[in-house]
């Protein structure tokens, strides 16, 4: 069914079609992807029915605790909804470039923004609705009609966070401009992903992380009368999930109110022509000042400075690279708790981190070169440029890890030196693999860099694991009381790491 | 003859599955502005990319200032600057930083590069934007900055692929003035353009390429003499339209 041209329904259909084309894959992939996804989704209904059928009824006394757990889950989901809402808002209002076209048409401007916010919300909510549907629909078959409230909760919750995201977008765009707002949205999205991971690892990070102690800690905080008590307003969203009609109605009304306020505000923002001011900020330029550059430096210096400037000025990429440090935190905590494996574990972790950072930076610097033709058209020797690029990737990593390595050497000279050796070797090998295997790509495809280059991905992974294993076994073998068994394993893992490097070299891309 | 020739293509060919350039013979004299014209897909960009050393010809030889591009690429590239239609820039660099980098690639001494960079930015009206990242620049500003980068090492041969595409009248005038000034000071320019009036007014000689072959070459008067005359557009259409 198609809406009448010019109507809000018609506009919403257009928005959803744009969403599908922007977020779907290439046409060839879409043809087979949709039936596969649909089949998988229907299959999930069966799995959910099978599991829920055997689930015992939740006693009313436990419902408040279910509401607490549901609220915590919704808070986590809110971070994803908010960051997705930010990205979608920047795209739909400032990047897609069709707002002017729509505003110049006879369509009422208020309905344009109503539909646009609605489309942003639906675009974000659809993932969560699809994920919840098998559970809710299966629940219907076994008599849990109240679970239908989940759909309303997801829609209301997404509306609230997307509306807030759009309001923040307008504020940020006013202050920073559309481009920087997009970067903020991307960084928030990366942090949201890391946050979920850290929450999942909370038990490992806590100083006393036995299940009994955690239960005790929670019970202490939710006792009656405290702000976190089960009947507290804080758990409102969770109570709505459990099917409480009053709480659900409150949530839906809050979402509608915020939606209408946001539409009004967005409409006002555009009608007052503020977006024009935003887009002209950059064009003004600064008054002429004395121009000074640092000319006459060696090719190595010139390339190093250029690469480091480009990385330092790309906060989105930088955040994606540095978030790898965050992912290793739980590993570090786990390793440090175990006396026996502390030094080998730290060595393996640092080696893996070094290799992983080196892979990422080398990809950015070598494969994602913005102007390869400029380099190739210049008389500069490509081998010097390539060496300088490897140096540009490796130096920051070694500088970053110098402090923990110095600490390790101060603790135990032999262990520390072995650690230094494996870290440096892993960093260099990962950089060389990137240099030999990297395929030209744009910086914006950083998160998708593994796709379509499976050999490089496998070589990277095996090489990284090989060096990490070498570090672990070598340092264990160097510990007092260890036998030759570890030394043999060290030899095997080292051979594996070197073989992958050889494979990377043997299958390298030939470049000018 | 060779002492007066800035660029010489001897029987150059390039295939991408099908022929892109076939047995191309071309000579551009020193100190001249040469316009290479042709319909879309005629092989103009491929020819320029081979001259710039970005593509190796499948057959034939390219000489820049008498230097063989195949055997002495670094020496040949030292004399060239190449400006494609899509400027080769870094979004996260400021104009002066970009010029520093390009000067470094061509090994320009600080004593030459620093004043030249300031002069070029001034000339191209980019000094006011010297402290902004190029990602916020308009198409015209990007094109002008790329041109400044191309001129930072005072190349003897300037190769430009559609240099005026997307420029407003003022920016186009600045670029044209800069090219004429380069030729006046003894430099050589070879450019492609679809704006035939530009070639008509600026070029000393014009080459017309079709299906990878040079089908006509000469001054505008010489080309007119080969056809029924008229404007360059008339001449071009007569020469390139199917018989």
Quick summary of this structure?
The complex is a heterodimer of chains A (512) and B (243). Chain A has 21 helices and no strands.
Structural features, described:
The complex is a heterodimer of chains A (512) and B (243). Chain A is mainly α and 512 residues long. The longest helix of chain A is centred in the first third of the chain and has 33 residues. Chain A contains 21 helices and no strands. The termini of chain A are far apart. In chain A, helix 3 packs across helix 6, helix 16 runs parallel beside helix 19 and helix 19 packs parallel to helix 21. About 2% of the residues of chain A have low confidence. Chain B is an alpha/beta fold and 243 residues long. In chain B, 37% of the residues lie in helices and 26% in strands. In chain B, the strands form 2 sheets. Chain B has a 6-stranded mixed β-sheet with strand order 6-7-8-3-9-10, with helices on both faces. In chain B, strands 2-1-4-5 form a 4-stranded antiparallel β-sheet. In chain B, helix 3 packs across helix 4 and helix 3 packs parallel to helix 5. The radius of gyration of chain B is 18 Å and the shape is globular. The model of chain B has no long low-confidence stretch (mean pLDDT 90). Chains A and B meet through helix 13 and helix 17 of A and helix 2, helix 3 and helix 4 of B.
